[in-house]
Amino acid sequence: MRQPVSAALLVSLIALSAFAADPAPGPKPDVPDLGAFQVADGERVISITLEDVFAYHGHPCPGATVTFRGMQLAARALWPDAVPQRDDIVIFSRGSMYGVLDVFALITQGPDLPKADAISQPSPVLEAMPVSPESYAFTVVRRSTGEAIHLRVKPTLYPKEFFPLRKKAVEETATPEERRQLKQHRAKVFEKVFRRSEAELFETPVRYRMLMFGA
After folding, report:
1. Which stretches within the chain are classed as H helix?
2. Interacting residues of 17 by C-beta distance below 8 A, sequence separation 6+
């Protein structure tokens, strides 16, 4: 059973909204039709599109896009002949980027509940997690069977300059030239996550079974 979300966690998430804000938005990209992610909530089947993800997150986001594509891959692998129930999906994330976390929140709980409800750990855990190429890794578990798949985005997706520039933009210390460079890098990453195949975006998925206690 999910523990109640503390007021401190909710306040912390609001305070950390700089991670959700786009530090260098640039022009809105043309969003391709990547298909919908289907999830069941009881007897109701819900289709979530990438446009839905962007609306929930607040703006187009390459991190949200690649995570959405990863969740599509995971669903095909773990629920090949069925639509997953929301309460059958367990996700472990190695990163705290809000574009990534918003995809997980939208899929596992829907758009109507506070985003904080989707995160089980206290706020210091969220604050301490890194934002780097290594952060784009997550494990999806089918609770009912213990089947799991671990996905990691290829580190070459983001240029090495992207995260230092993003950090400066979030901290409002970036120069106009650095913000221009960040916008250029961001546009290139969007092109990759929109157009490349799953095999080009992700390292070889790792499949295994697991037992869970206290989950």
Report:
1. 7-15, 50-57, 62-78, 98-109, 123-128, 162-170, 176-195, 198-201
2. 98
The pLDDT score that the predictor gives to residue 20 is 42
Question: 137 pairs with which residues across the strands?
Answer: 152
Decide: 58 and 98 in contact? Cβ < 8 Å. Answer: no
Q: Which residues of 48-58 are buried (b: 16+ CB within 10 A; e: fewer)?
A: bebebbbebbe
Q: What are the contacts of 169-172 at 24+ separation with CB within 8 A?
A: 169/23, 169/24, 170/18, 170/19, 170/21, 170/23
User: pTM, whole model, 2 decimals?
Assistant: 0.82
Distance CA 60, CA 53 (A): 8
The first and second tokens of residue 163, run together, are 């995260």
Question: Tens digit of pLDDT for each residue in 8-43?
Answer: 333 333 333 333 445 555 567 778 889 999 999 999
In sequence order, what are the residues at sequence separation of 6 or more whose Cβ sits closer than 8 angstroms to the Cβ of residue 44? none
Whole-angstrom distance, CA of residue 70 vs CA of residue 88: 17
Of the pLDDT bands very low, low, confident and very high (cuts 50, 70, 90), residue 124 is low
- Distance of alpha carbon 87 from the chain centroid: 18
**b/e 8-34 (16+ beta carbons within 10 angstroms → b):** ebeebbeeeeebbebbbeeeebeeeeb
Say which amino acid occupies 159: P
